[in-house]
Specification:
single chain, 0% strand, 70 residues, mainly alpha
């Protein structure tokens, strides 16, 4: 039997067993979790924007050279 087929069947069987043998977690999301996720998303967005701002000339030069007709 092929190794990739064996691995694929193993992963599928594990996934199906997790779906079949579920248990209740008796858990909840703390109200502060939503604000924490929002803070992470905004920090990522502003960090990406700041990085683009700092390296804007290098980015512009890269794409100009990439799409220029020579």
């Amino acid at each position: 039997m092929n190794k990739s087929i064996l691995l694929r069947s193993l992963f599928v069987s594990l996934f199906l067993s997790v779906l079949v043998f579920q248990q209740n977690a008796f858990a909840y999301l703390d109200p502060g979790t939503g604000s924490y996720i929002l803070q992470l998303a905004l920090a990522f967005l502003f960090g990406a924007l700041f990085t683009i701002k700092v390296f804007w000339n290098k980015i512009k030069t890269f794409f100009t050279q990439l799409f220029s007709k020579k």
